[in-house]
Amino acid sequence: MRTHKVKILMVAPHFPPVITGASLHVYHLVKGLESYGINVRVHTIKTMLGENTLNLKFGGLDIKLFKPLLNLTRTPRKFAGNEDDQPISPSYITSTIKACSKFDIIHIHDGPKVCNDLLILAMKKIRPKSPLVFTPHGYMVTLPAYARPDVTSLAYRLFSKMYWASGIPHTSLRGSSKVIAVSPFQARLFAKICGNEKVFLIPEAVPSHYFVDKPAFMDNGKLKLLFIGRIVKEKGILNLLHAIHKVRSVYNKENKIELVCIGLDCGYLQEILRTIKSLGLNKFVKLLGPLPEHKKLEYLSWCDILVLPSYHEAFGLTILEAMARGKPVIATETIGGKCLVTHLETGFLVKVGDSNGIVLSLLRFLRDPELKHQMGQKALAHALGFNMKNMIEKHIGLYNVLRG
Question: Among 5, 49, 51, 89, whose CB has the most other CB atoms within 10 angstroms?
């Protein structure tokens, strides 16, 4: 595989310590490419989040931070990384365009983001010969903000509707040399917009140290649930809390179930705390905030089931992380959920917003203790197909195609 002297400019609005699925994907991709001897520079937008909660290693990485001018959605800086976050940085755009001639490939991540769309459109005019790869990542590609029931800001809904009506998101896809889809659903959608020849399917992956040799559970009569994700409405955590309350009612409020939640508060924590109190779940639910990676891995080993009741998931990296630890998953019928979870084999799929569906799934596990072992084994086998080495090599193969 030809890798020598390749120079990649990796461009993403968010990069760790901001923790999103897209930012972690970029981080692991950069680290993986560096391990193959490929030179990578990262262009990203500076945020106020300075705490490296996952204890990731940045030594030796070439990272350029650019100051944001404003945020179109007025997302508080402490909540940076939210899916709707729209930071605007003119220097991020101009510096990337100026640097194009020094790199073999420009790889832009996340969209539709106004800042990235403007960058792609500008490059199309100013640097039309620069090989440009675009990985949109987020669910916003397939479900615009104005079409989502969880977006309540009328101003943002109007902005989103006008933005999509302008055709800019689709123009950005068409203006890229190659578009990477992270799921088969995305691949089919992108092919309709910009043609089959432009679209490459490269699913996301998890690092090798997440994988276990075989599933392991601590059978103590309790069903241990884990939720990992930002504390926001669209992650469906309220539906999960109501489901746990109903399950406890079925068992006459016996201590049969417990939940641990890991993730950054993005402005929704107080609503969650009020719900926990009103449902009488204080003793059965723990909110731990963001944790270092080694602690997250400990809880992935501790739990019996990962529950991710999101309203939207373009891929669902957390699902894959749990499956790599040999854990079954209860997920909603999002793009990511349907892509990764095989209903009744590696876990359960329920309708979006359906707390009763979560209840029925939890009861199945409670009434059949062997079920988690059977599903966990199948989940681990499925996750093995999403290893980091394959993902990195597929990216290198695509870069080499563009280099000619």
Answer: 89
Fold of 209-385: Rossmann fold (3.40.50)
Sign, Cα dihedral of 377, 379, 382, 383: negative
Domain ranges of the chain: 7-205+387-403, 209-385
Give the pLDDT band (50/70/90) at residue 26: very high
Q: What's this model's pTM, rounded to 2 decimal places?
A: 0.86
Please report the sign of the dihedral spanned by the C-alpha atoms of residue 246, residue 250, residue 252, residue 257.
negative
The DSSP bridge pattern shows strands 70-71 and 87-88 to be: antiparallel
CATH number of 7-205+387-403: 3.40.50.2000
The verdict on whether omega for the bond into residue 87 sits within 30 degrees of 0, i.e. cis, is no
Closest by CA to 87, choosing from 49, 51, 46, 146, is 46
| Maximum separation of any 2 CA atoms in the chain, in Å | 68
Phi, psi dihedral angles at 199 (to 5 degrees): -100, 130
65-94 per-position pLDDT tens digit: 998 887 766 555 444 455 567 888 999 999
Q: How far apart are CA 228 and CA 154, in angstroms?
A: 29
> Which pLDDT tens digit goes with each residue over 118-176?
999 999 999 999 999 999 986 555 567 777 766 667 777 787 888 888 999 899 999 99
User: Half-sphere exposure (CA, 13 Å, Cβ side) for 102?
Assistant: 10
